[in-house]
């Protein structure tokens, strides 16, 4: 191990940054949905501002990984570890973007929009948060059993999203003047659903890292 | 026995679609009482570049030198098993060693041109093989120097001493010297380790160009070089062949943990 001690230190550093970014994305989604339910515009603004920090962290991970590839010329699992770090970081950044978009919808809806917020959105959020937690544990421990579980949860989120969408479509028929607001709700559902997709991508990347082959968990 | 049989099957599976030039079967080698190579089974595909990598003392240079019987000159060397070159045992009594070395040429780590003119370095081999006519020798010299991608650099100074050339140029002259006697195989023992990065890349380009006509077996400490230029890579450790597969596979997803640990710099 001593032969590449410094390299290992750098790899560990990237891992820590990714875990931090994951916790950031987790916090963003949690707060964004909370802000949506409570029409808390201040909290929504905080989520949007916080996203800039997460973008920076994603850049930092990318730059560190690219520099390591250039300087250390890694091969085999080391190379995969860095490629996967870049990909996972990008997924996490997109997950945080989805949370930010929910916050934007919250602001768009405003304080007294009078729209019923579906409780399923909260359920979707809970599963999406479980997914990010699982994906990051799978990444931390390079555990493909955990990674595989993400596929089941993703199906669950997809199913819930379809259901919400059908209900919202019915509402547009009965309450056409609220279409703008209902669309924001549909978007929010879509953002959570995409959040879950990215978590599944992380699972696929972990399987690639461990097995050296590509897998499709979707 | 069971393991050796499995290894053999494993190795021959890899090259089933390729024509092979060397077939090494259960090969062992001792320097006196020290065993340097243990039960190696390996088939070398024809017109491909095969790289042999491994830490110092793993037996890779020994294996390479055995392929044209350069180890014969070392006292106390003993071997067992078989090495077939074009289906003929290279250790058979009838094997003329000079004939084997004509067909299986060698390029060494340090450029070792003769202290003669560039022209004479190339013409020396063919002349020994009985070619006397100046016109034919001229043609061979030009063809060989062209083949080694150095003709344009030396065509106006063929009578200069080869030592006046740079290290990279000297190495290409040495490769041209090998080509002059029209071998089938070029063995290369760390051919760029004494060269600067640009000369190294030139030799690497040359090696890739040469594989259409020749089979190349290269021993290298430079793993990136093996990854860049070879089609197949063999990883040796402590005299054993650990893994032999497509270079792309070996450097992206090796099957053996020892290979992974070596190529990722965890030991060696």
From TrEMBL, chain A:
<dbReference type="GO" id="GO:0045936">
    <property type="term" value="P:negative regulation of phosphate metabolic process"/>
</dbReference>
<dbReference type="GO" id="GO:0006817">
    <property type="term" value="P:phosphate ion transport"/>
</dbReference>
<protein>
    <recommendedName>
        <fullName>Phosphate-specific transport system accessory protein PhoU</fullName>
    </recommendedName>
</protein>
<feature type="domain" description="PhoU">
    <location>
        <begin position="18"/>
        <end position="105"/>
    </location>
</feature>
<comment type="function">
    <text>Plays a role in the regulation of phosphate uptake.</text>
</comment>
<feature type="domain" description="PhoU">
    <location>
        <begin position="121"/>
        <end position="206"/>
    </location>
</feature>
<dbReference type="InterPro" id="IPR026022">
    <property type="entry name" value="PhoU_dom"/>
</dbReference>
<dbReference type="InterPro" id="IPR028366">
    <property type="entry name" value="PhoU"/>
</dbReference>
<keyword id="KW-0963">Cytoplasm</keyword>
<keyword id="KW-0813">Transport</keyword>
<dbReference type="InterPro" id="IPR038078">
    <property type="entry name" value="PhoU-like_sf"/>
</dbReference>
<dbReference type="Pfam" id="PF01895">
    <property type="entry name" value="PhoU"/>
</dbReference>
<comment type="similarity">
    <text>Belongs to the PhoU family.</text>
</comment>
<keyword id="KW-0592">Phosphate transport</keyword>
<dbReference type="GO" id="GO:0030643">
    <property type="term" value="P:intracellular phosphate ion homeostasis"/>
</dbReference>
<dbReference type="GO" id="GO:0005737">
    <property type="term" value="C:cytoplasm"/>
</dbReference>
<comment type="subunit">
    <text>Homodimer.</text>
</comment>
Automatic annotation (TrEMBL), chain B:
<dbReference type="GO" id="GO:0005524">
    <property type="term" value="F:ATP binding"/>
</dbReference>
<dbReference type="InterPro" id="IPR003439">
    <property type="entry name" value="ABC_transporter-like_ATP-bd"/>
</dbReference>
<comment type="function">
    <text>Part of the ABC transporter complex PstSACB involved in phosphate import. Responsible for energy coupling to the transport system.</text>
</comment>
<keyword id="KW-0067">ATP-binding</keyword>
<dbReference type="InterPro" id="IPR003593">
    <property type="entry name" value="AAA+_ATPase"/>
</dbReference>
<keyword id="KW-1278">Translocase</keyword>
<keyword id="KW-0472">Membrane</keyword>
<keyword id="KW-0547">Nucleotide-binding</keyword>
<dbReference type="InterPro" id="IPR027417">
    <property type="entry name" value="P-loop_NTPase"/>
</dbReference>
<dbReference type="GO" id="GO:0005315">
    <property type="term" value="F:phosphate transmembrane transporter activity"/>
</dbReference>
<dbReference type="InterPro" id="IPR005670">
    <property type="entry name" value="PstB-like"/>
</dbReference>
<keyword id="KW-0813">Transport</keyword>
<dbReference type="GO" id="GO:0016887">
    <property type="term" value="F:ATP hydrolysis activity"/>
</dbReference>
<keyword id="KW-1003">Cell membrane</keyword>
<protein>
    <submittedName>
        <fullName>Phosphate ABC transporter ATP-binding protein</fullName>
    </submittedName>
</protein>
<keyword id="KW-0592">Phosphate transport</keyword>
<dbReference type="InterPro" id="IPR017871">
    <property type="entry name" value="ABC_transporter-like_CS"/>
</dbReference>
<dbReference type="Pfam" id="PF00005">
    <property type="entry name" value="ABC_tran"/>
</dbReference>
<dbReference type="GO" id="GO:0035435">
    <property type="term" value="P:phosphate ion transmembrane transport"/>
</dbReference>
<dbReference type="GO" id="GO:0005886">
    <property type="term" value="C:plasma membrane"/>
</dbReference>
<feature type="domain" description="ABC transporter">
    <location>
        <begin position="22"/>
        <end position="263"/>
    </location>
</feature>
């Amino acid at each position: 191990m001593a032969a590449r001690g410094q390299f290992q230190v750098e790899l560990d550093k990237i891992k820590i940054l990714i875990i931090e970014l994951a916790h950031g994305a987790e916090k963003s989604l949690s707060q964004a949905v909370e802000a949506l339910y409570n029409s808390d515009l201040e909290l929504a603004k905080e989520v949007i501002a916080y996203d800039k920090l997460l973008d920076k962290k994603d850049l930092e991970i990318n730059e560190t990984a690219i520099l390591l590839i250039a300087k250390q010329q890694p091969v085999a699992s080391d190379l995969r570890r860095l490629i996967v770090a870049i990909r996972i970081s990008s997924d996490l950044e997109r997950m945080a973007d989805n949370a930010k978009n929910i916050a934007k919808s919250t602001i768009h809806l405003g304080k007294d929009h009078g729209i019923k917020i579906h409780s399923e959105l909260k359920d979707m959020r809970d599963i999406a948060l479980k997914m990010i937690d699982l994906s990051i544990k799978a990444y931390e421990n390079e555990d493909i059993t955990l990674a595989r579980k993400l596929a089941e949860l993703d199906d669950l989120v997809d199913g819930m999203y379809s259901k919400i969408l059908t209900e919202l479509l019915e509402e547009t028929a009965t309450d056409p003047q609220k279409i703008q607001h209902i669309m924001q709700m549909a978007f929010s559902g879509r953002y959570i659903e995409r959040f879950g997709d990215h978590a599944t991508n992380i699972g696929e990347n972990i399987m690639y890292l461990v097995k050296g082959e590509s897998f499709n968990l979707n | 026995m069971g393991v050796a049989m499995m290894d053999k099957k494993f190795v021959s599976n890899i090259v089933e679609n390729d024509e092979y030039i060397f077939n090494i079967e259960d090969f062992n080698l001792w320097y006196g009482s020290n065993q340097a190579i243990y039960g190696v089974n390996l088939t070398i595909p024809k017109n491909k570049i095969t790289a042999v990598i491994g830490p110092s003392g793993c037996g890779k240079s020994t294996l390479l030198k055995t392929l044209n019987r350069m180890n014969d000159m070392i006292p106390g060397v003993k071997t067992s098993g078989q090495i077939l070159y074009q289906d003929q045992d290279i250790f058979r009594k009838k094997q003329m060693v000079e004939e084997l070395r004509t067909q299986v040429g060698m390029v060494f780590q340090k450029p070792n041109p003769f202290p003669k003119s560039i022209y004479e370095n190339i013409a020396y081999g063919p002349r020994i093989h009985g070619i006397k006519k100046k016109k034919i020798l001229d043609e061979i010299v030009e063809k060989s120097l062209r083949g080694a991608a150095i003709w344009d650099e030396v065509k106006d100074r063929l009578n200069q001493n080869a030592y006046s050339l740079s290290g990279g140029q000297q190495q290409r002259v040495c490769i041209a010297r090998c080509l002059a006697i029209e071998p089938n195989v070029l063995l290369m023992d760390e051919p760029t380790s004494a060269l600067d990065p640009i000369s190294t890349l030139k030799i690497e380009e040359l090696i890739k160009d040469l594989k259409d006509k020749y089979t190349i077996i290269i021993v290298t400490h430079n793993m990136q070089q093996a990854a860049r230029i070879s089609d197949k890579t063999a990883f040796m450790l402590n005299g054993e062949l650990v893994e032999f597969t497509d270079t792309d596979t070996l450097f992206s997803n090796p099957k053996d943990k020892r290979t992974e640990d070596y190529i990722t710099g965890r030991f060696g």
